[in-house]
Structures are given as C-alpha cells and as structure tokens.
Amino acid sequence: DAKTTQPTSMDCAEGRAANLPCNHSTISGNEYVYWYRQIHSQGPQYIIHGLKNNETNEMASLIITEDRKSSTLILPHATLRDTAVYYCIVRELLLPSGNTGKLIFGQGTTLQVKP
Amino acid sequence: EPEVTQTPSHQVTQMGQEVILRCVPISNHLYFYWYRQILGQKVEFLVSFYNNEISEKSEIFDDQFSVERPDGSNFTLKIRSTKLEDSAMYFCASSEYGTGGWYEQYFGPGTRLTVT
Fold first, then answer.
1. Is A46–B109 a contact, with Cβ atoms under 8 angstroms apart?
2. If I label B18, which of A9, B49, B77, B89 is the partner at 20 to 30 A Cα–Cα?
C-alpha cells in the first residue's frame, strides 16, 4: 500500500501557484519523496524528488518539512496543461537487498486548473 | 529527450487469446518495469526485470503473465490466456541506477488492452 496521503482533488486558477500537499508520517530515514503526474491516462511523468532539503527544477519546487512527515509540491504558475493527477510517492533511493526500484502509486490528487 | 515507446497503442483481443505487449526502453537503462491501470483506478506495479530475470513481481503477476527481453532493445509482456479483468492500460517503464541511487523512471505512453 502507498505510504502517503493526499487530498483527492484540488482546483487552481490559471497563472496562480498550485500547492499540493502530501503526508508521509511513516517515512524512514533512507526514503525519498518523489512526485509524478499523469495527464489524462498518459504514462506517469517524473516531476521532482527530494530527501530533506527543498528542491527546485524547471517544472516545480518541493518543500519538505523539517521532520520530513509532510511535503508540498509547488507549481509556481499553473497552466491549463498542468491539469493532471499528481502522485506523491516515498521510495528508497539506494539498492539494499530487495529494493527493485518499483513505484507504489496511491490515488493521487486530481488538480484541475481553471481559466 | 529520450523516451520509452510501446506498441501497439491499442490492442483488442478475445477472452482466452494470447497477447504480447511490446516496449522499447531507453537505450542505456538496465532496469525495466511493467505497470497496469484499470480504468478509473490507480497505477499498479506488476513486475520488475533486471539482468535478464525477474527481480520482483506483484500478486497480480500470476502464471498467466511472463516477461522477456528477446533482444538488446525490446522488452515484452505476454498474457497467455486473457481474461475480461485483464482489460487495462499497461505501462512499461525503465530506469538506471548509479552511485547516487535510483534515477527517475521513464514511462511509455501505454498500451490499452481491451478483452472482449
């Protein structure tokens, strides 16, 4: 089962920042937080990941709380093309025995960007 | 940008028939995966594959399923005798692993399998 909890759906106005929360209270020290999104039944698309520091790339920013029990994905200027299901996933980054790198998806948050 | 490709985009088959779904992972990746998504449901892990063998499989991946890397570029998922409940979108993914850990998984566009 997924180790994360996300709101089922959110709305955002076009051009505004979209802030998508995720709770991962049972995260362990060697697990990273990953975000993927799925636009209308296309293949999931990687967005960003982080361990404990805030991260930023060309798509989004990831803010992780100091206790690492929750995080927020920020899309700074949402567009209509950002309408998608966003998945927050915790995953071990390293390859100890038994870690095959699989992703465990939850239900995600359906983000609707409105004009 | 490199991409994972899948063929066909849509496959319709009759119950009991065998189907083979094909994937071409990103060329320098060594770790391969299949996931499926039943309409309206979440993406589910099926199997991971490395070094020409299955490294992990889920409960869904029963004896009706098999995977193969028949050559240096293709990665296939075979369903021997399809059931109505196998109707789903099937996604292939690939990844690499380095000294810093797992890189992101790249997903293909999916094959929609419809079993009638």
1. no
2. B49
**Cβ separation B37–A95 shorter than 8 A:** no
Query: What mean pLDDT comes out for the span B4-9?
Result: 97
What is residue A61's predicted lDDT score, i.e. its pLDDT? 98
Residue A106: closest C-alpha in chain B:
B42
Reported as a single tens digit per residue, the pLDDT across A59-99 is: 999 999 999 999 999 999 999 999 999 999 998 877 665 67
Write the Ramachandran bin of B61: left for phi over 0, alpha for psi from -120 to 50, otherwise beta: beta
Per the DSSP assignment, residues forming a β-bridge with B48 are B33, B56
Kindly report the number of other CB atoms within 10 A of residue A54's CB atom. 12
What is the amino acid identity at position B113?
A: L
B4: chain A residues, CB-CB within 8 Å: 43
DSSP state of A3: S
Q: Are B111 and B82 in contact (CB under 8 A)?
A: no
Nearest CA to B39 among B6, B83, B79, B87? B87
